[in-house]
Write a structure and sequence with these properties.
The chain has 3 helices and no strands. The protein is mostly helical. It has a domain of 63 residues.
Length: 124
């Protein structure tokens, strides 16, 4: 049985969460770069504001996603550790195995001379 923390969500909330985050990581810096381009155009400066605002927005989105991911993983690991601590492990030594052959069974290691000399397989 899988850990309930690792099971898939039964609700439809967040099904396309990965795609939404990817779009946010791409679109948000684009919007900030466009805003920087408009500011560059109004100030008559080079593309420095567009580049810097786009870069700051990109780094901010990556940092925010990394923090969210780290927090989620820390919660999942804490849940797994708490469940693991409650599970009892049986540390008793395993039962000894009686490996003697049944009565009447022997291992015959003698080979027939005619097959042994001819290089054929030995029959028992």
């Amino acid at each position: 049985m899988r850990n309930p923390v690792l099971r898939k969500q039964t609700q439809s909330i967040g099904n396309d969460d990965g795609f939404a985050k990817a779009v946010e990581i791409v679109v948000t810096p684009g919007i900030f770069a466009a805003l920087g381009w408009l500011l560059d155009k109004s100030f008559g400066s080079g593309p420095w504001l567009a580049f810097s605002l786009g870069l700051v927005a990109f780094l901010t989105k990556i940092t925010a996603e990394w923090c969210r991911y780290s927090g989620r993983m820390a919660n999942i690991e804490a849940d797994m550790k708490s469940e693991r601590a409650s599970a009892k492990i049986d540390l008793t030594p395993p039962e000894e195995i009686y490996d003697a052959l049944p009565t009447g069974v022997t291992l015959n290691t003698e080979t027939r001379e005619d097959e042994d000399e001819s290089g054929g397989e030995a029959r028992w």
